[in-house]
Specification:
about 375 residues, mainly beta, six-stranded mixed sheet, globular
């Protein structure tokens, strides 16, 4: 007997129920066709997401900065669930942070700009689906939006110079993020700002020469703690980064102690199991944690013929079993393998390197390898 299925849904998921026997299918998340801040309609079940804007500042908490010339948004006076919100069964909320705020307690200051989202300002708020940030915001502090299970949209505008530690950590419904080009050179985006979020597409800002700000800041993001990441977009002109065949490269070559610079690139991270990436070509350096937590389709890994540097914790918790390294790393100026490059690479059994045991005694003098790993040199083996 065939089923006569009809859709049922709530504000998170939809499923089908047979009108005859009441058999139900597994629940699936809505696929909303939307344009940033407008209502969305699920392409499967026609669920219509209605956004209720919330911008009542009387329940918001602001604090003045030390110079009394701007405000920091600190959250709400009460948990959002206890506030007098619009009476809607689904409680879908779009929070609008004001660009300017005038405090009834300090009327002498007049309307001052809101420049900061404070630490833990909205941490754990479960109702908010979207956040609209004003153009005045410059600082998003640590854990400002962490652990928000419903947050699916937020716009980080140009003008933001700092995104703090774990700012969007564990926001599992947040699928996209555009990083602004205005991030500061010294403390732009914290390396763990996006840890364990649901981000699938990360957009890096345009970066062209000359640039006053630090182009290196995106090297240190914890890409290995972004399990949902599927794509990195390089927007506009970018003289620093490229993303091709699911791998992210930093295009500026290594600078040596002699003052020279090579023409290679640096492997920052990659997406997927590496099956569509040629790991033997092009790059001169593997940046910290590049293979961390990766499950490779091919665990017999051949590295670049131009490779001269292997960073810290590169292969931690990676399933690689065999690594092949060319001779250049043993002869190039300022070449190195960090002492913890292979730390916690628990499946690693063999390293094949095109150098003598004598050369390895210098290059690998401080390298930590677990017991039983064999380093195959051109004139014999070194067993750990």
């Amino acid at each position: 007997m065939s089923h006569n299925y009809k859709y049922s849904y709530d504000y998170n998921q939809h499923w089908q129920v047979c009108s005859d026997c009441k058999t139900a299918t597994e629940k699936e998340e809505h696929e909303l066709a939307l344009d940033d801040w407008y209502d969305g309609v699920c392409s499967s079940c026609n669920y219509h997401e209605t956004i209720v804007e919330y911008s009542d500042t009387q329940w918001m908490v602001f604090s003045l900065d030390a110079g009394n010339n701007c405000w920091m948004f600190e959250g709400f006076r009460l948990p959002l669930s206890d506030l007098p919100l619009p009476a809607l069964p689904t409680d879908i909320i779009e929070l609008v942070i004001p660009a300017y705020y005038e405090s009834p307690m300090y009327p002498e200051f007049g309307a001052l700009p809101v420049t900061t989202i404070g630490p833990e300002a909205l941490k754990g708020e479960s109702k908010i689906r979207r956040v609209v940030l004003p153009s005045t915001i410059k600082y998003i502090e640590s854990e400002a939006f962490a652990d928000m299970p419903s947050l699916s949209h937020i716009g980080i505008r140009e003008g933001v110079v700092h995104i703090g530690s774990q700012a969007f950590a564990r926001c599992e419904r947040l699928k996209e993020m555009q990083l602004p080009s205005t991030l500061d050179s010294n403390f732009g985006v914290a390396e763990d700002a996006l840890d364990f979020s649901g981000i699938e597409t990360l957009r890096l800002p345009p970066l062209d020469f000359p640039r006053d700000q630090n182009e290196l800041q995106f090297l240190d993001l914890h890409y290995y703690n972004m399990p949902s990441l599927k794509k990195i977009d390089i927007n506009g002109i970018n003289d620093y980064y490229k993303f091709e065949n699911n791998a992210l490269y930093y295009k500026i070559g290594l600078r040596y102690s002699t003052g020279s610079e090579d023409n290679g690139s640096r492997l920052v991270t990659f997406i997927g199991d590496g099956s569509d990436i040629d790991f033997t070509a092009g790059y001169t350096s593997i940046e910290d944690c590049a293979f961390k937590n990766k499950q490779l389709a091919n665990t017999d890994l051949y590295l670049s013929q131009e490779l001269v540097c292997i960073g810290s914790k590169v292969f931690e918790n990676c399933n690689v079993k065999t690594i092949h390294i060319s001779a250049k790393i043993a002869t190039a100026i300022d070449s190195y393998i960090r002492d913890d490059a292979f730390e916690n690479a628990n499946d690693l059994t063999d390293i094949y390197i095109e150098c003598t045991k004598y050369d390895w005694s210098y290059l690998g003098k401080y390298v930590k390898l677990r017991s039983g790993v064999v380093v195959h040199c051109t004139d014999g083996n070194v067993v750990y």
